[in-house]
Amino acid sequence: MTTTQVPAQPKIAPGKLFIDGKWVEAISGKRLETINPASEEVLTTVAEGDEADVDQAVKAARKALEDGPWSKMSARDRQKLLWKIGQLVADHAQELGTLETLDNGKPIFESTRIDMPFVAECFQYYAGWATKWHGETIPVPGNYFNYTLREPVGVVGAIVAWNFPLLLASWKIAPALAMGNTVVLKPAEQTPLSALRFAALCQEAGLPDGVLNVVTGFGPTAGAALVRHPEVDKIAFTGETATGRIIMREAAGTLKRVSLELGGKSPNIVLADADLDAAARGAINAIFYGKGEVCAAGSRLFVERSVHDQLLSKVLERSQSIQPGDPMNPKTRLGALVSKEQMAKVLSYIDIGKRSEAKLLTGGGRADIGTGKGFFVQPTIFDGVSPDNKIAQEEIFGPVLAALEFTDVEDAIKKANATVYGLAAAVWTRDVKKAHYVARRLKAGTVWVNMYNMMSTESPFGGYRQSGFGRELGAHALELYTQVKSVWVDLSP
Ligand code: ADP
Fold this sequence. Notes:
Blueprint: E1 17-19, E2 22-24, E3 31-36, E4 41-47, H1 51-66, H2 69-72, H3 75-91, H4 93-104, H5 108-129, E5 137-138, E6 144-152, E7 155-159, H6 165-178, E8 182-186, H7 193-205, E9 212-214, H8 219-228, E10 234-238, H9 241-251, E11 257-261, E12 267-270, H10 276-288, E13 300-304, H11 308-319, H12 340-354, E14 359-362, E15 366-367, E16 376-377, E17 380-383, H13 390-393, E18 400-406, H14 409-416, E19 424-428, H15 432-441, E20 446-449, E21 468-469, H16 476-480, E22 482-490
Parallel strand pairs: 7-8, 7-10, 8-9, 10-11, 12-13, 12-19, 13-18, 17-18, 19-20
Antiparallel strand pairs: 1-2, 3-4, 5-6, 6-22, 11-21, 14-17, 15-16
Helix pairs in contact: 1-8, 3-5, 3-7, 4-5, 4-7, 5-6, 10-11
The structure holds adenosine-5'-diphosphate.
């Protein structure tokens, strides 16, 4: 326990739906509770939207797209507006981050110092693109003038998970608005609060009514209604692979565009010639950052046999300094898992590991931070895990590391790629040739060399294989939110 002052929990007003610039109750009148996973107390309630509310939100978004001031706004004015939204997020980073931590259980250090600055940056980055993504003139044969227009896709339905609530939303909302779309956001039922506060800031920035709507509610009701709605043109989703499959199937009914950022079981490969201290530090960050509730988490640590014992002892030693703590304490680096259900799921995987051939090096159970409350799990490391063990195959989404051995580079690549996922991967080596060789051979949307978990607004992020498709962030995301029109003009005399 540290002596750092932990701020008192602020009182949070009940949340309503944000539709067409107004705060409204769900048509059904229902509400859902949102819980602080660190204390197990109810933080507040928010409106429980369903199909009827989604319909209202989509109608508002459609009207704003076609008739409102948004439809006539110049790209330059959209640019200014997005920049202002980014500025307001930066100015309110403490408040938004506090809501995120209370709702999600992530350390306040992460939410205020990493997530919120990233959200602000995302809006300011895409502000710049509003005026810089345009059509082309094409030298077609014949006496014709041919050019392209880049038009918005239309009404975008954004459905996001609870692990980086506002950040994942911003990766969709910022490029969507920059390109002139309108949005209906469905935050995760576990973490609706930051999105609601964010919507108010957008209004304060001057975003016209209906351009961004927020419908809180459950996935199979509110989320599914958004996916099925005929007036929604595109779904941008971040969540589990199993949910991604449902969304793709449901979106087929109206042939919506879909982009999916799904699960992972990312390999973190340490070759014998690596800087083992750096690799050990990286391995810890890879799995325990964000409580391991990170789609790109380095949950499989592959170690070359000759340095196995040395590396694992370094990893184990470092893991001892990471203990769960009160997420509101600025010194905490490992918070509470998001919910009781998530904790139960993680603990059930830990049980599978304990009953298998794998050796439990540390952790292995629920943790108590001295309050007897909260969904805390000890940082857990299994060694000697066989590649076909469930804990080496399935996404656990918690602070659980599976360490595996390999004999040479080819063996490492083969084992690392032996998964249905392909979100991220890392390789640690001092040999520049090996580094680039392995980076090319790994089937993953992001590969880190001698680092882990680095992300930036400018660089694309997304999955290979069942980790999804479509690239968020960077210029690549602009493709997801525009469609191209070819215009022909007869110039014959
Ligand atoms: P988790 O199980 O970890 O909460 P999900 O993939 O279920 O992850 O959740 C991600 C988001 O998808 C949440 O906002 C959730 O409400 C939503 N969701 C869940 N099921 C569906 C569904 N059938 N259709 C649309 N959205 C859904």
